[in-house]
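Hi R.,

As promised on Friday, here is the backbone we talked about, encoded as structure tokens. Could you run it through your design pipeline when you get a chance and send me back a sequence?
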């Protein structure tokens, strides 16, 4: 075992080699911060005059890195941010600095007081017990209130709000909000129902109001109130059809091989070659958030050439048909201009949110 200066030299040498290797064994998630900013600007332009467009950066900035994402959005003009839990707010405060408001959708949970106070977070109180907890621990600290207008997920029920509103609105209340259940379906009657209930519960109050995330922004100005808080649309997802793509996932090729007609590929012999083929094995799998349900369904891309996945998605590897390529590729793209998160989601009956937030931690995140 090396010790002292010799050991330190070895560690430094390894660190430099790792930094300089180009991450060729590691899949690379390219994150276009200018596209992210353009998406925020576009949604801000859709919002009514005088409406503040905030940004939701929960789940580590939808898997892209909350610090980098929020900093880029702040540079684009966002002045208010939303996260899911207090711990996310603490990390975000480190990135954003002391001034910009950070709201916590989950409210004030047991043990959160030090986080809320230390990072100057604004908990969105969801129930009478959260009101009691917040008032007991941080009686003068600002808060917001979340109301349930029919989603039955988070927020105060109408009777609790009616009883507590006079006291809550008299304190340092920063925002009253609710959340739409069906905003991605513009004609769904639930949208109008929740809008009417939110107005019934809040019309006449002097505190700022918020009802809409991305889908609500696109429903029209009557849904905007004082603050909108887009999330998925910032990151290139539906229902914001005008969004620019934000992510490109390039996966390195470990090995290529020729497979003869009739030979099988991967676990369970799930794929039998119908002809002589050229296959590439690439360095990502379900441990990196590529769902096993994509087995035999996914398509990767080399430029404008589609390359289908064959066999199963395994933990660290995918096997891709590259027979259409003239030369062995160095990388193949799963997310790119030809295929976004919603395209992949549609193949396996899920949503772009899940694809995006599942992107693994082994990816090298490269900010453009």
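Update: got your reply. Pasting your designed sequence below so it's all in one thread:
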């Amino acid at each position: 075992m090396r010790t002292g200066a010799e050991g330190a030299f070895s560690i430094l040498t390894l660190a430099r080699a790792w930094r300089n290797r180009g991450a060729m064994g590691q899949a690379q998630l390219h994150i276009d911060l200018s596209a992210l900013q353009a998406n925020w600007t576009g949604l801000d332009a859709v919002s009514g005059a005088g409406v503040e467009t905030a940004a939701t950066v929960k789940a580590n900035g939808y898997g892209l890195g909350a610090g980098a994402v929020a900093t880029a959005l702040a540079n684009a003009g966002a002045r208010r941010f939303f996260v899911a839990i207090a711990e996310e707010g603490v990390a975000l405060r480190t990135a954003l600095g002391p001034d910009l408001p950070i709201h916590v959708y989950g409210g004030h949970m047991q043990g959160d007081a030090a986080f809320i106070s230390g990072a100057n977070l604004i908990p969105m109180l969801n129930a009478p017990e959260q009101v009691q907890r917040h008032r007991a621990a941080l009686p003068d600290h600002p808060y917001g209130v979340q109301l349930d207008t029919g989603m039955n997920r988070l927020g105060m029920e109408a009777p609790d709000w009616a009883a507590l509103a006079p006291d809550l609105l008299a304190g340092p209340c920063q925002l009253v909000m609710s959340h739409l259940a069906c905003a991605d379906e513009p004609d769904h009657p639930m949208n109008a129902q929740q809008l009417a209930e939110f107005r019934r519960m809040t019309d006449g109050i002097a505190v700022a109001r918020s009802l809409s995330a991305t889908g609500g922004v696109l429903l029209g100005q009557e849904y905007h109130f004082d603050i909108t808080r887009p999330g998925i649309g910032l990151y290139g997802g539906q229902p914001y059809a005008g969004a620019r793509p934000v992510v490109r996932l390039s996966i390195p090729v470990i090995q290529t091989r020729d497979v003869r007609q009739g030979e099988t590929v991967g676990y369970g012999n799930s794929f039998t070659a119908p002809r002589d083929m050229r296959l590439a094995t690439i360095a990502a799998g379900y441990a990196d958030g590529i769902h096993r349900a994509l087995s035999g369904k996914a398509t990767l891309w080399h430029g404008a050439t589609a390359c289908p996945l064959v066999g199963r998605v395994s933990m660290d590897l995918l096997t891709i048909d590259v027979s259409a390529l003239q030369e062995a590729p160095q990388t193949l793209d799963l997310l790119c201009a030809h295929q976004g998160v919603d395209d992949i989601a549609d193949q396996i009956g899920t949503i772009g949110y899940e694809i995006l937030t599942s992107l693994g931690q082994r990816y090298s995140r490269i900010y453009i």
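One thing I noticed while checking it: The chain has twelve helices and 19 strands.

Thanks again,
M.
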